[in-house]
Specification:
About 25% of the residues lie in helices and about 20% in strands. The protein is globular.
């Protein structure tokens, strides 16, 4: 049955559709469910009674874990309030790995601390044997001087040319803030956020399932990285938007033979194991400590970036802020 849905966005209720997926048939499941905050979805009332909402969440969480392979991973994105409940549910049926903090500030809410992050729960189906790759992001630099923001002290000779390993706090990926760059959807995520998750937990040709597909961000990220995808979405308008963007998407998130994640014209996520091959595409200072004030650059005769940007459709470009 998973082959029937492969590389498609299927319109319908995710609970009914999930039940048709065989056990242990998907490599990664990513869910960004409605937040129950009365957001304006077209086909869903985002304001269920408290217990009804949690009962519904437990149902799709249980199904998500069931369809995940023993080597696979489960991700759930939401606000901290609901993640505390989701975590209790997942602890009963899966293996906790990380609570990823995504630094994405929102508007002040009055008599409380200003919300400054979303959470992404990272669980695996099994305690051992799950697929995982360490990933790196570029060094953070001062905008004016170009020097590294972090002082590495006596460890500058050991600096990795590309950047440090990614931690469980993600501050380098920003929300899509401007309405003119968004689809008609209240909770649209950046493609490169999903690309990072997919690079971290999958290989080429693996399958990624999103039961709340929205306007197709997870599917687009998977297709750009040459992974298979399955999306379930209740709203026919969102399905139409998704298919239009997917038709304009090709597997272009690559340098040479290695899959990476781009943000505009820069590579922002790589797998650590790929660096030995990826470094041939960069001009790198001969002395490691020079990385402190010299940013590595893609070679001028490497037209990979130019070709990738030209291949991006106008619809895909609109997802970048």
């Amino acid at each position: 049955m998973i082959k029937k849905y492969l590389n498609k966005i299927i319109q319908g209720d995710c609970m009914e559709l999930l039940k048709t997926i065989p056990d242990a048939s998907v490599d990664v499941v990513f869910a960004d469910p409605p937040f129950n905050l009365k957001k304006k979805y077209k086909s869903y009332q985002d304001g269920l009674e408290f217990k009804a909402y949690l009962d519904w969440c437990k149902s799709w969480i249980t199904e998500m874990v069931r369809v995940t392979k023993p080597t696979g991973s489960i991700f759930v994105h939401n606000i901290p309030k609901w993640l505390t409940y989701y975590s209790a549910m997942l602890n009963e049926v899966a293996n906790f790995k990380h609570w990823i903090t995504w630094d994405a500030p929102s508007s002040p809410m009055g008599k409380s601390l200003q919300p400054a992050h979303y959470g992404i729960l990272f669980y695996t189906k099994s305690k051992k044997g799950n697929k995982f790759y360490e990933i790196r992001h570029p060094h953070k630099r001062d905008r004016k001087t170009g020097y590294l923001v972090k002082d590495y002290g006596g460890k500058k000779d050991g600096l990795h040319p590309f950047g440090p390993l990614v931690s469980d706090v993600w501050t380098d990926i920003h929300r899509i803030k401007h309405i003119k760059f968004r689809d008609e959807h209240p909770c649209q995520l950046p493609i490169h956020l999903l690309e990072r998750i997919i690079l971290m937990t999958t290989d080429k040709d693996d399958t990624v399932l999103d039961p709340f597909s929205g306007t197709g961000t997870t599917a687009i990220a998977a297709k750009r990285l040459n992974r298979g995808y399955v999306g379930f979405e209740l709203d026919k308008n969102y399905v139409s938007i998704s298919n239009e963007k997917l038709n304009a998407t090709t597997p272009i998130s690559r340098l040479g033979n290695n899959w990476v994640s781009f943000y505009l014209n820069s590579v922002i996520t790589i797998r650590d194991i790929d660096w030995e091959q990826l470094k041939s595409h960069y001009v790198i200072p001969k002395i490691a400590r020079d990385i402190e004030y010299k940013k590595i650059l893609l070679k001028s005769d490497d037209d990979r970036i130019d070709r990738s940007i030209h291949q991006l459709s106008t619809l895909e470009k609109s997802l970048f802020d």
